[in-house]
Structure formats: C-alpha cells, structure tokens
Design brief:
The protein is an alpha+beta fold. 26% of the residues lie in helices and 14% in strands. The protein has a five-stranded antiparallel beta sheet. This is Proteasome inhibitor PI31 subunit.
Length: 278
C-alpha cells in the first residue's frame, strides 16, 4: 500500500468482525479518510447538538454497522458533522452534513462495481480504492470543509495584520516629540517653513533644518531671507521689517533708474536751511 493509504489496512483489522456487507467496506474507508483528515467520531445518531463532554475517537463506535442506515457523528475544528449512508438499489448514497449551517455534500457509489469482497487486503476488497479515496476527498469532504478553512485563514490574517484604520488611530493618538512635522524641515526636500512659527528649529534636538542644513537657524527673524516664501513689499529696502518705524523717501516702488532705494538728493534740504539770515 502507498503512503497515501497508510493506516487503512489497520482500520479494517480493528473492525473486521463488524464488516458483514459490502456497504460496510465503503463506510470503513470513508471513516478512515475522515480521521486522517482530522475528524474525530463522537458516537452514533443524528443529534445536531454538542454537549461539550464528547470524547472524539479515531475508532468506529460499537454497533456502527448494525442498522440498515448508517448515522455517525464527527467533530472537526469544533464543528459537528453527521455522516449518513443509505442504500438505494445498487448504490450507497453518503451525505456529510455540516450542522452549523446545514451545508451538505453527497457521494454516490455503485457498491457492486466498486467492492469486490468483504475480506482480505484492501486491494482485494476494493481494487479501485485509490480512485474511491480521491472521490471521497473531492465530493464528500472538501465541499463542507473549505469554508471552515478559509474562515480560519481570514481570522488569522486579520489578527496578525492590523487594519489601516487601526494604524491611523494609533498614529493619531501618538505624537513623537522628536518627529519634525511636515513642512518644518527634515529629509525629503527643502524646508517650507511658516514665518509665524519662527524659532521651531531651536527646539529641534537633532538640528534638522538648523543653520547649515537649509533651515532657519536661530531666533533672528529675517522675513526676506532667500527661500522663505516672502519678498519685500515694493519699494522697501531689504532688511526692513514690515510694521517697523520707517518712512521711505518717496512712494514705494518708484525710484530713479540706477539709484535703487537710495533717497533722492533733490528731496534733501539745502545746506544751512535753518540759518535765518539766508
């Protein structure tokens, strides 16, 4: 026997005295596959509730082959499943019910064609047992267990990876005192500072945006420093702070060519203007 059917022969040995019909051979193979998949049998019947005191087992319970209709209860990943089997002419119809949502799978097997004997090796009893096992997996087990597996994977992923809104709330509630706010300086481009927040760089323990790093540096405010985003009002000499007591000579922005912002000599009083004898 291949490694894929490991334990199947032992399963038949443990129930050899209870196997009396060809239908029993099929049920033993289905039970073996369920336990290999992770199911545990918790008894007979079709009760759809769990008391919590059930002890799951890899063995078939006593009396499993006595009735004409098979009814076995299993637990898988905390969920209750019921395996039902009924004979219809030459076909054994098997159903696996997932009790929480009543999702059910079906497998129909022609007993006379599949089961050759009720005694001997697995190969002798069911020559096509490899193909039968593949059908059990695809038609009976996977349709009612894929949803459970996908839900478990989704829950694990959501617990391991915080959601974007959770990250946002954490960031919103936390303020790093050493973090330089956007627009104040730091790597990623030249600083774009608010002139009314001047002196922020003095509070920066890392010196980001300070003197020599493209920042403001110091507490001396010069709104006309290059790159500050402020230009002197028209006609005001550079270095003059708006609002300071300064009386420009002539209207701002108007001057003689070549004279820049210097006062017009024609506006100056003549020498000795305060001499009463002139």
């Amino acid at each position: 026997m291949s490694s894929d059917t490991f334990g199947l022969e032992l399963s038949f040995r443990t129930v050899s005295e209870a196997v009396k019909r060809k239908d029993d051979v099929l049920v033993v193979i289905v039970h073996w596959f369920l336990t290999k998949f992770g199911f545990r049998c918790v008894g007979l019947g079709d009760d759809k509730t769990l008391s919590g005191s059930e002890n799951g087992s890899e063995l078939l319970p006593t009396g499993w082959s006595d009735p004409e209709t098979y009814s076995l209860r299993y637990v898988y990943d905390g969920n209750l499943f019921i395996l039902r089997g009924v004979r219809a002419d030459e076909t054994l119809i098997l159903n696996l019910l997932h009790t929480p949502d009543l999702n059910v799978s079906n497998l129909a097997v022609n007993v006379t064609e599949v089961v050759a004997d009720i005694n001997g090796t697995v190969e002798k009893m069911v020559p096509s047992h490899i193909g039968l096992i593949d059908r059990i997996r695809k038609e009976l087990v996977e349709p009612v267990t894929k949803k459970i597996s996908s839900e478990a994977t989704t829950q694990t992923s959501s617990q391991a990876t915080p959601r974007s809104e959770d990250i946002g709330s954490l960031r919103e509630g936390y303020r790093d005192p050493l973090r330089v706010p956007i627009g104040v300086g730091g790597p990623g481009g030249p600083p774009r500072l608010d002139p009314f927040n001047y002196g922020r760089s003095d509070l920066d323990p890392l010196g980001v945006g300070g003197p020599g790093r493209g920042g403001l540096g110091g507490m001396l405010f010069d709104p006309f420093q290059r790159g500050r985003g402020m230009e002197p009002p028209g006609g005001l000499p550079r270095g003059r702070v708006p609002g300071a007591r300064f009386d420009p000579i002539g209207p701002p922005g108007i001057g003689r060519p070549g004279r820049g912002f210097e006062p017009d000599p024609d506006h100056l009083p003549p020498p000795g203007y305060d001499d009463m004898f002139m």
